[in-house]
Structures are given as C-alpha cells and as structure tokens.
Amino acid sequence: QVQLVQSGAEVKKPGASVRVSCKASGYTFTGFFLHWVRQAPGQGLEWMGRINPNHGNTNYAQKFQGRVTMTRDTSVSTAYMDLSGLRSDDTAIYYCARVPDHGDYVEFWGQGTLVIVSS
Amino acid sequence: DIQMTQSPSTLSASLGDRVTITCRASQSISRWLAWYQQKPGQAPKVLIYQASNLQSGVPSRFSGSGSGTEFTLTITSLQPDDFATYYCLQYSSYMMYTFGQGTKLEIK
Q1: Nearest chain B CA: its distance from A6 CA (Å)
Q2: Residues A48/A23, Cβ–Cβ less than 8 Å
Q3: Which of A71, A89, B73, B105 registers the highest number of CB atoms within 10 A of its CB?
C-alpha cells in the first residue's frame, strides 16, 4: 500500500532554513508526482508546489518562489522540501501528498510535519 | 492565478440534514476540481474528484456537481462522522493548484 512517511517536527529561528523529508513506499517512486501542502495553525490548506520524481522537474506556487526548493533522491525514494528565510508565519504543518494512479489531484497524504518558527 | 472562493465559511446543521457547499473559480477550470474532508489532527481525505466522481470507499451520501466556474458538494442525511472541515481544490493548471478557504461544518 502507498505510504508517505515524513520527518519529525522541527523548531527553527527566524531567518533559518528547514528541510522536510517524505519517504515513499509501496509503489514506484518515480511514477507519480509529489506535492507539498501546508496548513498554519487553525488555518486552511495552502498548495506550495510539486515535483516530478522521475525528472526532478518542479512547479512552485508564486508565493514561495525563491524561498522553496523541492528535490528528490530516487535511490532512497525520498522527496525533500527546503524552505529558507523562515518567518513566524511559516509555522505550520507541512504535508507531502501523492497523486492517484489516474488523475492529477492529490490522494495519498503523509502524516504531516510540524515546523515551528520562533525566536 | 486561479482563485477559489468557497462558501459558506461555517455551516451549522443537524443530523439528517442535507447541506451544500459551493466553490467558485475565478476562471473556468472545466471539471478539474476535488473535494476533501479534514478532521482535527488528521490529513485531508479526498471525497470527490473531477467534480463529480466519488472516491472509492466514500459513502454515497456525498456527491459533487458543477463545471466551469461553479461547483457544489452536497451531503445528504448528515451523519455524526460528517462534522468536519471541507475544502475544494482546483487542479486545472499544472503550474498552480489552489485550495478553497474551507467550510467548517458544525452541529447545530
């Protein structure tokens, strides 16, 4: 079965960077786009971007252009999301999510990674 | 960018009620819309994809309709498990997906 297991919670200071990982199992890692979505405390879902694990091509939401980098390591079936220049309003749960076998919406979700930005 | 306007932001209803949530897109997205349910402390769960297709395993009391710029999620005969927050997601543009702001469905 499809599993996406994310790295643990992080506490960062303003201005720092964070890396969140998403290890995939139960399917061919390079076969399906992975997306990153975040959710600030008590707020809605916000799409950050996606990566094609096969080619490494990325699309980022305009809001995060220049601050976010999505990469992958196919040898360990893991995707990464790096966010730099952290601010307090980057405090959120960050999710990775995979598209279904047929379709472009997101179906399978990781458990989420809490990132807290605080001085 | 395609903007998604979801309404209402909060909805109070009783068990057994029929409720409707609406998402409007700032431009046509054909039928590239999905609906999600999220409960506190959990990741979202997809209910509907491509505007009206019921995700496997989702109860038939959930249904979706619409195309172009206006979409609805309808839940008939509300059950206790349905009280949650609902989001729409447009995936028309591969370069930019957009979620609606969410609708919290509360028990009246």
Answers
A1: 12
A2: no
A3: B73
